[in-house]
Every structure is written in C-alpha cells, then in structure tokens.
Amino acid sequence: MELLECGGVWVVSVTGLLQLSAPEAKCLPDCHLKCSGTLLGTWDLYCTLEVDSFGYFVSKAKTRVFRDTTEPKWDEEFEIELEGSQSLRILCYEKCYDKTKVNKDNNEIVDKIMGKGQIQLDPQTVETKNWHTDVIEMNGIKVEFSMKFTSRDMSLKRTPSKKQTGVFGVKISVVTKRERSKVPYIVRQCVEEVEKRGIEEVGIYRISGVATDIQALKAVFDANNKDILLMLSDMDINAIAGTLKLYFRELPEPLLTDRLYPAFMEGIALSDPAAKENCMMHLLRSLPDPNLITFLFLLEHLKRVAEKEPVNKMSLHNLATVFGPTLLRPSEVESKAHLTSAADIWSHDVMAQVQVLLYYLQHPPISFAELKRNTLYCSRTPSWPVLAGNDHGLPVFADTGEMGLFINI
Question: Are residues 215 and 269 both part of a single domain?
C-alpha cells in the first residue's frame, strides 16, 4: 500500500496480489451473480474483472461462459496482481454467437454488455488477509464475490520445496540436471502450447487463469504425470500462461539470481549506452548456464508474443511489466535490510526491474555462444562510484563514454 498525491489530495493505492472468489461455495470458491427483477429467457453470461493501474483500467481475468441461466455460479477463483490500484471493476456480458453482429474494425463478434460496476479497494479491508465478502450492483444485477489480499512481498516470497523430485520450488540447475535438458521441461511445454494456440490471445500473460486450473497443472508437472501433454491441450490457455509465471515465481531464487540483483539495478541506471551495453551483457555472462539458457529461451518467446501486439495487445513493455518483478527482485535479506514495507519495495525497485527486462527484450537477438566467447568489458579509468557489483565479485563498469576493451578467449 502506498500514498499518491493527486492535485493536493492524498489517495491510497494498493500493490500486491488479490484473490477473488465467492462466499457461498463450501468446497470450491466462486464468483456468484444474482439478478433482480423479471428476466425474459435465459442468458449465456460471463464476467471480466478489471483493476486500475495508476488510473488506467486493465482487464485481469475472465470467467467462463455460463450458458442458459439467469443465476450463474462460476465456481472459479482468480489471483490478480495489483500495481498502485485503487478500484476493482466487474463487467457482465451476454455472449453473442450471431456472426452477423461483428465489429467493423476487427471483424470480431461483439458481446452485449449487461452491466458494469466497481468498488474501491479499501486498504483496511485488503490488509486483513482474510476472505472479505462484497457485492457489486449493476443494472438490476448483483455480483457477489469474496476477496483477500496478499502483499507483494509475501506473494513473491520464495520457499524452496522440501521435495526435490518435483519442479516447483526446486533449483533450476537441479531440474535441468535431472531432466538432462538445457531448459526445464515445464518451460518448454508451456511456451510451446502458448505459441501453438495462445499467441494471438488478447492479454496473454496479463489475463489471469483460473487458480484451480493452475494448481492442477502444477500438481501434474510436479508428479511428472504421463498425461501432461493431453491435459495441456485441453486446458485454458490463460491457465497455461499462469502456470509458467507461477513456476518462475516459485523458484527458490529469481531466475536472474539474488547475487546479481544489485549489479542489474546499477547497470540499468548507467547513462552511457556503450557502458550500459557492456555491463548488461557481462551480467548475463555471469549467470549460471541453466539460468542464462532458460532466460534467453524465454526472451525469444516473449519477443515472438510481442510481434502479435496488433492482435494480442501485449507490447514488449506490457510483457516486461508482467515478468520483470518475477524474474528479478532483491533477496529477502537485502529487502529487510534496506526497506521497511512492501510498498517501499515496490516503489523503489519495480520500475527498474521492468526496465532491465525491457532492455533485453529490445536488444537484438542474444546468442549464448557469443556471450560465452566475449568474457568481459574492462574500463580504463573507472570514474563513477563503486558498483554494488564489486561486493559480489563483479568488475566495475565506468559511465565515462570510453569505448573500453573487449577480451576474446
């Protein structure tokens, strides 16, 4: 949670993870819609969930279509990332199957909006960490749901798995060695499925999948179940994208490592393009091979997703915003030593985390073999303050504008 000043008025905004479900369900939580008044016939209904990010509403989740009903009960749960958010908005639609009703701009069928409404994300409510019941009313329709909040600090807290036989919460080097692969199987399969049938999905990686579907996929991958491929082919693509994000979020340490985090933060802040280029490339070379190869694999995948931006609305910046804080963040020890709250952590570092990933996404293709051939960049006269990288056994990169020296071995 943090305070923003808007025209002299202090506004509270929330950062973290919001879980949404409904109070009535005993076994499976859900989002429950009730309609008041007299309805003619039955509807094919679904809802979209949006939250604002510093004033701009972004679609974060979508329920399945509940057919031929006046009171749908979806039995679905979503985890939604909040970034400086103040409001939750729910829009209820009737699914249209009439191919004559299309949008002239994109030739897509237009669904009828039945109503929309929103609530303020009350910091006192979201900080309770317990399920809180709420209702949004819209044009005679009531949507009942429950929500609970997890701070960003807790949502990204990495707990190593006690079982080393699975993949979630297990070091990437352990997984690749066991699988005798360069990139973990879960990463390869999720990427393949997204590129096969989800690369043109609007909001891919931004839209949350159903939490129960993601947990089911997690269990299947952890057990190395023989039905993985069949399950992937039948699963909603947003759940598969969510499983990939969850895998990276649950690594015992971020993909770009705790040790290199301070150097990445200072490297991205360099103003001289040549110094920044050499520093950022050296930092990649400093990664363990399994981390580096997996990062480069993911990088090229995200670039291919961004190539479809006119259709899927996911630019390089959008993808960097989704993945940056997951792939790169300070260790828990370092966070506690320098910052006092989850809001401070987010406001202090998240933009830099996004910028680091965006830098690599905007960079021409990076070859693993080429990185390994070029060992390091040496500055002749380092003139800027000592980098945190020095404390981690890394060379100093001067922000001087000098060309420096490449060493090939």
Answer: no
Distances in whole angstroms, Cα of residue 328 to Cα of each of 80, 138, 249, 291, 353 = 19, 40, 10, 12, 6
Sign of CA dihedral 116, 55, 50, 20: negative
Residues 6 and 145 both lie in one domain: yes
Q: Which of the residues in the chain have pLDDT under 70? A: 1-42, 54-55, 99-107, 123-129, 151-164, 332-348, 375-409
Asked if residue 391 and residue 247 are part of one domain, the reply reads no
Distance CA 340, CA 353 (A): 19
d(CA 325, CA 42): 43
Looking at the structure, tell me whether residues 212 and 120 fall in a common domain. no
Structural domain count, the chain: 3
Last residue of a domain, one of 138, 154, 170: 154
User: Is residue 106 in a domain?
Assistant: yes
Give residue for tokens 């859900």.
Answer: 30
Same domain, 218 and 118: no
Residue with tokens 């036989």: 165
> What are the beta bridge partners of residue 210?
78
Residue with tokens 């990427």: 191
Q: Do 274 and 213 reside in the same domain of the chain?
A: no
Check whether residue 149 and residue 179 sit in a common domain.
no
Structure tokens at 394: 């890394």
Cα–Cα distance between 159 and 251 in angstroms, integer? 8
Q: State pTM to two decimals.
A: 0.74
Mention every residue, 6+ apart, whose C-beta is less than 8 A from residue 222.
Answer: 163, 165, 166, 167, 168
Show the domain range for 180. Answer: 160-252
The answer for residues whose C-beta is within 8 angstroms of residue 42's C-beta and 6 or more apart is: 68, 69, 70
- Nearest 5°: phi and psi at 99? -70, -10
Phi first, then psi, for residue 242 (nearest 5°) are -65, -35
Q: How far apart are CA 117 and CA 89, in angstroms?
A: 6
CA–chain centroid gap for 138, Å, is 30
- Residue identified by tokens 């069949």 is 230
Backbone angles phi, psi at 234, to 5 degrees: -95, -15
Check which CATH number belongs to the domain holding 208 and give it: 1.10.555.10
Buried b (16+ CB within 10 A) or exposed e, 67-93: eeeeebbbbbbbbbbbbbbbebbbbbb
Is residue 264 domain-shared with residue 406, that is, in the same domain? yes
pLDDT of residue 186: 98
